[in-house]
Amino acid sequence: MYVDQSFQQYLTEKLSNEMVELFHDREPVGYLNMMEEWERTKCNFDPETSGDVIYFNIPTRFYNFISKRKPEILEQLADEQNGDDENIYLSRQTMENIFRPTLDALVSTVKNQFKTLKDEEINIIFLVGGFSTSPVLR
User: Fold this and answer.
1) Consecutive H or E run containing 90
2) Which one, of 54, 63, 53, lies nearest residue 20 by Cα?
């Protein structure tokens, strides 16, 4: 959830808060589909094997939504990305920055849990939930 919030913040930086919120409010199914695509992107991201740039495809519904209302946003995106306005380019560093606050908080929480155990031995840790499939988390 927190990684998703970081991505949504990045998305608003690229495509404007106004467009993201308006799309969310007026096209909730399209917005949910976009976030499902983000979920796949997030869970497949591996900083060791994913390459230097991760391409997040702007769904057609969202692309058309923006182009009708604020085409200059897509023009700006194209200027930043060698003419490509149909994807959002996420560098490896950007992806790591999206994950970082959540990972730091998780590590801190786990360390605190281990401190409360004192000398008890732990042999197994279970990761559960959708995010548990993420190579970054593991």
Assistant:
1) strand 87-91
2) 63
Comparing 73 with 110, the larger pLDDT belongs to: 73
> What is the per-residue pLDDT across 21-53, written as a single tens digit (0 to 9) for each?
999 999 999 999 999 999 889 888 988 888 899
Both tokens of 91, joined, read 């560098």
Tokens of 71: 């085409």
Tokens of 18: 């106004």
Angstrom distance (rounded) from CA 75 to CA 84: 9
Cα dist from 90 to 66, 80, 114, 119, whole Å:
20, 12, 35, 43
Average pLDDT over residues 97-125: 89
pLDDT of 18 higher than 90: yes
Quote the CA–CA distance of 13 and 70 in Å, as a whole number.
14
